[in-house]
Amino acid sequence: MYLSKIHIPWHQAQNPYQLHQALWRLFPGFEDADREFLFRVEQLQKGIGAQVLMQSAMQPQSGEQSPALLAQREYVLNVQNGQRLRFRLRANPIKTIKDSSKGTVEKKGKTFSKTVRVPLLHEEQQQAWLERKLQAFAQLETLIMQPEPVLYFRKAKEGRSGKIQTVMFDGVLTVTDAEAFNNQITKGIGPAKAFGCGLLSLARI
User: Fold this and answer.
1) CA torsion angle for 188, 82, 84, 148 (degrees, to 10)?
2) Which of 54, 64, 153, 198 has minimal CB crowding within 10 Å?
């Protein structure tokens, strides 16, 4: 995998949807492929742009229309069972509930109410959400949670807008299943990956 630091100019970074589109330009010829990268906005300065950390299966390629690659390195995941690691994760903790006002959907001859995602706003709910996401491959030891401003986005082509509530998680974990842990790092954790969530950054202790 590759870890890259990227600068996205302000005119491409103002809207989270546009920012995601800009990152796709680093993979010319693969615009219709499944997304194989995760990213996190580390800094956003009005009028200047965004500094982004990106993890990708393919090597990004900088071009005339793409964001600027500031730094890049290739790395191999090599964690072991019992290893303790510091981590950082921006995530979108949510739960899914039924909402009859949204209508119904047919599945295997049965009718079900459509579901909607709602944010988890209380710290104990957010921590429980993270513990559930990690429980198959790691044990949470320490945790600091930092709520973040609501992230608004607009899809101009579809004429619709939305918002997500993100949380920054920092802490220490112990790996309990190294193989599953490596697989999950590649996939990311939780929803809203197209809006900069899900990248689990690690550091040795």
Assistant:
1) 30
2) 64
